[in-house]
Design brief:
This protein is α/β, with parallel strands linked by helices. The chain folds into 2 domains: 21-267, 3-Layer(aba) Sandwich (Aspartate Aminotransferase, domain 2); 269-402, Aspartate Aminotransferase, domain 1, CATH 3.90.1150.10. It has 13 helices and 14 strands. A 7-stranded mixed beta sheet has the order 1-9-8-5-4-2-3, sandwiched between helices. A 4-stranded antiparallel beta sheet has the order 10-12-14-13. Strands 7-6-11 form a 3-stranded antiparallel beta sheet, with no helix packed on it. β4 (138-142), α6 and β5 (164-168) form a beta-alpha-beta unit. The longest helix is centred in the last third of the chain and has 21 residues, at 382-402.
Length: 404
């Protein structure tokens, strides 16, 4: 009887699509004229960064937009713009990535973590309790790994208590809840254009808001000096009069080179988001009804972007989870485990951020103990995604049969 070799995936989980030719041509044009700084323009010339802000505001349905050097800078800038100061308590998800509590701690503020549900969204019951108990007046909501909670209920909780919401949309650019784009429920929406996000400029980010005072502060904070009139997606001049003398310059501008790369990508964002979700659904179909593995069901109200995929191994012991990760790795499928005791790459847990006061989060501990995650770059075909699902399915079955 012939031995059939197991299938192996040979693609790269970190290989992104190339920059569109239109973006390359625009970048070369910026390099040829040398005016990379966003305020270094000829008379009558509109900077690429200013055009990008205008276009991104329109795409998100926002009045104002600011392009900045990174998604992490966007988070810190947003906190400062709404008035967070050292010693203030700021609520945020326990299930998130390090830049979120890092942005809070960088101001000397204190992150207070909120539990996560089995569906990987912020626990709204725990949020309501913590809002009442803590006195915190800002929530930095992380739409971690692209999962949107019930935004109507969240905003009702926060509005009733006078809590300002800042949305971290690093994983949800192009997503929506009941048709409202991610980033448009709270006072500020923050986005990332780091390489593994939905637009790729290596590093970069955006803030959007309809609040003129908040956006005026953010523009001054970003290092506009008194050149804010060159922003096309900015509040009127009178908004700056109230803040320009008292707002520090904490420079974090986006340059024209990155803006030139991003503008053509923004024009095709909708098609790219749909393509990601097609890949997500292909993996999901291949893993459905698999004993030992729990899928994250997506609510009908959520228009999500499937640029990464998560599943849970509820009740598995750590050794069995590690065995599965290793077995899939041998076959070319890179899984990241959020339940590991020590941080690995980006998969650190809330209890590894030791600049945050220790907090007990038993529900989050239970969820993260069996949570696995993987990227789905658009360089994968639908056939690739089906193969990846077959490999995971086979290895989950093999480990599950041994006992977990």
């Amino acid at each position: 009887m012939a031995y059939i070799l197991p299938e192996v995936f040979t693609g790269s989980f970190t290989q992104q699509e190339p920059i569109p030719e239109a973006g390359i041509e625009a970048a070369v044009a910026v390099l040829r004229h040398g005016r990379l700084h966003r305020y270094n323009t000829l008379p009558g010339e509109i900077a690429e960064a200013a055009l990008l802000e205008e276009e991104f505001a329109a795409a998100m349905g926002a009045k104002y937009c600011l392009a900045v050097a990174s998604g992490g800078y966007a988070l810190g800038c947003a906190l400062r713009a709404v008035g967070v100061q050292a010693g203030d308590k700021v609520l945020t998800n326990a299930f998130t990535l390090a830049p979120v509590p890092g942005a809070i701690a960088s101001l000397g503020a204190v992150p207070l973590f909120v539990e996560v549900t089995d569906d990987l969204t912020i626990d709204l019951d725990d949020l309501a309790e913590q809002v009442a108990a803590s006195g915190a007046r800002v929530l930095m909501l992380s739409h971690m790994r692209g999962h949107l909670c019930d935004m109507d209920r969240l905003m009702a909780i926060c509005d009733a208590a006078g809590v300002t919401v800042i949305e971290d949309c690093a994983h949800t650019m192009g997503a929506a809840w009941r048709g409202v784009p991610s980033g448009r429920h709270g006072r500020i929406g923050c986005y990332s254009t780091q390489t593994y996000k939905h637009l790729n400029s290596g590093e970069g980010g955006f803030l959007v808001s309809d609040d003129p005072q908040v956006m005026a502060r953010a523009i001054i904070l970003s290092g506009s000096y008194m050149l804010y009139a060159r922003h096309r997606a900015a509040p009127p001049p009178e908004a700056f009069e109230a803040v320009k003398w008292d707002t520090p310059n904490i420079s974090g501008r986006m340059d024209n080179l990155r803006a030139a790369i991003l503008r053509p990508q923004l024009r095709r964002l909708g098609a790219q988001c749909a393509a990601w979700t097609d890949r997500y659904r292909a993996v999901e179909a291949g893993l459905r009804d698999l004993p030992g593995l729990t899928l994250i069901e997506r609510p009908a109200e959520e228009s999500f972007v499937g640029s990464s995929f998560q599943f849970r191994l509820a009740g598995w012991n750590p050794a069995a989870v590690q065995d599965l990760v290793a077995r899939c790795g041998v076959r070319g499928v890179e899984l990241k485990w959020f339940g590991a005791a020590d941080p690995v790459a980006f998969t650190s847990r809330y209890d590894s951020w030791r600049y945050v006061p220790p907090q007990s989060l038993p529900q989050t501990d239970r969820v993260l103990a069996g949570l696995l995650d993987m990227r789905l770059p658009l360089t994968f075909s639908l056939e690739d995604c089906a193969l990846i699902a077959r490999i995971i399915r086979a290895e989950v079955g093999a480990v599950f049969q041994k006992g977990v």
